[in-house]
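wait is this the right file?? whatever heres the structure
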């Protein structure tokens, strides 16, 4: 069976809004993988008309705009009688500042990662969440809902912080199988068992020898792993 798509909520670092070690603070796993999702990439150009000119002036490139992505998340708990309110609340919380960032006087909602299998399609913030509930219990508890999530990418220069500043670049992920430990995963991914600390920090793990099969680990880039292993 294919891996499920997911939207993972990532805790931002209070100072400057950079990712706080890539720590995952919540996840919505798609009931069914999406049939499609939409990207948009655009650029800004400026054309200054010359007075009295017969032809238009050449355009001047002003910069690239951030990538935006929109995807529908279909939540279905009908057959199992499962309330989908918690997943809806988790998605809509992406538009609300985290308490810790409010107290630091730099309010920021969580950042998100939209991934599918081993592919991370975007690291972003959520611009909007539109929710349509379509099936309920007799008491009005939602059992099915479609949530349209619009995201805008985090600029790479912000998302890729120096390892000593606490930021982690999340490029991909990996599914934990029975028998995996952080040192064994670090050896398979980097060839360095001692780089398990990078994985632990990125995933908020305290015990490197105990991993739950079926969990998805975020895998930081190799440069950060090498630097951390040498310290």
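ok assuming it is, sequence goes like this
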């Amino acid at each position: 069976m294919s891996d499920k798509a997911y939207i993972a909520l990532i805790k931002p670092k209070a100072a400057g809004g950079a990712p706080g070690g890539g720590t995952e603070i919540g996840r919505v796993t798609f009931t069914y993988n999406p049939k499609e999702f939409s990207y948009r990439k655009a650029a800004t150009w400026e054309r200054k008309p010359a007075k009295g000119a017969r032809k238009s002036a050449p355009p001047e490139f002003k910069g690239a705009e951030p990538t935006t992505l929109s995807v529908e998340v279909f939540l279905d708990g009908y057959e199992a009688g499962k309330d989908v309110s918690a997943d809806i609340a988790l998605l809509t919380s992406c538009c609300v500042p985290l308490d810790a960032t409010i107290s630091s006087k730099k309010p920021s909602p969580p950042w998100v990662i939209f991934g599918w299998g081993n592919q991370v399609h975007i690291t972003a913030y959520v611009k909007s969440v539109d929710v349509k509930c379509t099936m309920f219990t007799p008491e009005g508890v939602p059992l099915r809902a479609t949530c349209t999530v619009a995201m805008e990418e985090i600029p790479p220069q912000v998302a890729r912080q120096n390892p000593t500043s606490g930021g982690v670049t999340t490029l991909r992920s990996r599914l934990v199988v029975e028998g995996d430990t952080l040192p064994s995963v670090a050896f398979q991914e980097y060839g360095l068992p001692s780089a398990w600390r990078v994985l632990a920090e990125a995933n908020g793990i305290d015990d490197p020898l105990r991993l739950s099969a079926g969990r998805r680990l975020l895998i930081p880039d190799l440069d950060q792993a090498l630097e951390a292993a040498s310290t």
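Residues 14-21, 157-170 have pLDDT under 50 and may be disordered. so i think its the right one actually
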